[in-house]
Amino acid sequence: LNKPEWYLTQVLMWIGNHAKFLDEKIQPILDKAGSSVNAGLEFSRALVMLILEKLAADIPCLLYDDTLFCHLVDEVLLFERELYSVHGYLSSFPSCMHILSEESCFQRWLTVEKKFALQKMDSMLSSEAAWISQYKDITDVDEMKVPDCAETFMTLLLVITDRYKNLPTAARKLQFLGLQKELVDDFRIRLTQVMKEETRASLGFRYCAILNAVNYIATVLADWADNV
To answer: Going by fewer Cβ within 10 Å, which terminus of the chain is more open, N or C?
Structure first.
């Protein structure tokens, strides 16, 4: 259960190793018979069906172990990425995202995603470099003087989007968007709390850094507004 990458990698290897044989030996036979079947894609589809069976059996066994469950999700997302980008798998075919979208699994995924995001926010705001810009010494890069915590937070949101963007239904994607909205609100509250501590020094370093953070986040969210 702690090594889903073993069978996921094995399947990718089988697909890659058989591609030439299927393309050069089997596909011409199908073409000659007037079939519209793509040998390579059908081979991939059959192997993915085996993975779906395996996932359906394994997930209930690790649903409440955060570490194992997160590792499984991470490995499945890497597998899906390679399956589509390297092996040309079709989005209309069955995929692992359908298993991750099933109710009990999906709710668990949302829960652990939120848990780890909040932990990340705790660590980024308690860091000594939280209010310092990574690029403070490079003037042409750092016009907005973005503090490290704001940049890290927006990267966190971007990573979450990247993880859920291939979910098969808009309803599931919207649930993840809801989580992102919660995180933005949580971050806003945390900034407000820090700001209240700094009101006596409203021209101080940290107060200005908070204003820069808010400006940066608002600007990036506006840029993302065109991304359906």
So the answer is: C
Give the Cα separation of 111 and 128 in Å (integer): 28
Given a cut of 90, whether residue 158 has pLDDT beyond it is yes
Does residue 199 have a pLDDT over 90?
Answer: no
> Cα–Cα distances in Å, from 209 out to 124, 149, 152, 198, 200?
14, 10, 14, 11, 15
End-to-end CA distance of the chain: 36
Distance of CA 217 to the CA centre of its chain: 19
- Inter-helix orientation angle 170-197/205-224, to 10°: 160
- Spell 107-126 as b/e; 16+ CB within 10 A means b: ebbbeebbeebeebbeebbe
CB 109 within 8 A of CB 100: yes
Per-residue pLDDT tens digits for 114-138:
999 999 999 999 888 888 887 666 6
Q: Is 108 helix (H, G, I), strand (E, B) or coil?
A: helix
